[in-house]
């Protein structure tokens, strides 16, 4: 389940798992549009209004590559280190 106006984690995973070589031009454009829309919605929505799964999804899809996925998930749930 996703928050209002947000792409579900299932939809994101489905788009990511299908190889680009198997996607039509329409699918490529749709993925780009949905990704951009979701990113904008993510930045506009306060953290306090996001579901736990949406926080985790946002954290994992963020550009910070210095954290492991486990650390990102912990931080999204408020269980990570507070630097």
UniProtKB/TrEMBL annotation:
It holds the Pfam family HSP9_HSP12. Residues 19-35 have a biased composition (Basic and acidic residues). Residues 1-83 are annotated as: Disordered. Residues 1-10, 36-68 have a biased composition (Polar residues). InterPro entries: HSP9_HSP12 (IPR007250). This is Chaperone/heat shock protein Hsp12. It comes from Tulasnella calospora MUT 4182.
